[in-house]
Amino acid sequence: MESRVLSGSTTIHGLPRLRRLPTTLSAAACTPIVGAVGDGGNLVWGRQLRPAILLEAPPVNLLSPVIKRETLLRPCHAAASSPAEGSDSAGEAKVGFLEKYPALVTGFFFFMWYFLNVIFNILNKKIYNYFPYPYFVSVVHLFVGVVYCLVSWAVGLPKRAPIDSNLLKLLIPVAICHAIGHITSNVSFAAVAVSFTHTIKALEPFFNAAASQFILGQQIPLSLWLSLAPVVIGVSMASLTELSFNWLGFISAMISNISFTYRSIYSKKAMTDMDSTNLYAYISIVALIVCIPPAVILEGPTLVKTGLGDAVAKVGLKKFISDLFWVGMFYHLYNQIATNTLERVAPLTHAVGNVLKRVFVIGFSILAFGNKITTQTGIGTVIAIAGVATYSYIKAQMEEEKRKGKTA
Asked: Are 404 and 346 contacting, i.e. CB atoms less than 8 angstroms apart?
């Protein structure tokens, strides 16, 4: 028996039963398994939901190079009492790139969020220049995203989270507001310059504050209201002299602000343990169903008669289909990356990131399309963005202080 053990042909299971497993395990063996069990909780759809009893980890075998996984019925923190012994037997735990350079990874997420957003806005506006049908294009955005989600679920990246009727009832109002906000944003993009639409959408914090005060009953401090004054003044200045101004674009952008405000309100009521990727996928599916009827009713007859034929005649069938596919992909990916990015950062970083994103989109859209803006429009846009930055900074500080007060 002993010779077989020393030759490595028998694992620890071949030893006499009088021998016992080591009383200590290495620290590496106690490292939480990503996506399985960590800190005493089962990670289901990215959330810790319930305590774990069984912890799966490989036992240390000093006599054989063969290591088999065993199910241990003792907690990991109790087994890691001797780090020195563990480091001798199993070596130091390897630190992955994501854990070693978290700031670099977060920076990459921000870059991809801005990059995809800018490309989406530019490509979207180029499509409207030869195919001015925002309801149909809105449906294409969501349709491509839904197909992407279904394919991802089919291959298990990510695994589809189950949904029941109760959760669906909570998500339907969020999805309806998302659909209305998305359609009206596209109507505005088709009617006026991209930079002007984003300037109008800078008013969204004002609508959020008003809804919080008068609908949710939350008390908004005077300092927060005062910080919104430059936003209103700046948007007013930019609107009065904007060369591409028309009422359809202006009113559509305002409706979009209101819709996204209500989306935020309903999202707070629909808090769930489901991860953001699956949550956004379900919202996209419901929003697509909501967007199809108005597209068919308002643009369907014209599309069949002249719209599709004119677009193909101008750019060709291959480019037309390619543009619609890629604008849908960029729309879905930038929204998904934005959600994943904002989950990685603190509220203040979140606020600054949102403001900088709007600055990037406005700046690059002006360069891409060569839009001429008056001096007053430029000054008004800068004032509005500065107001949004001030508001976001104050609000983020308030949320951080509230969080620290709860944990104290």
From this structure: no
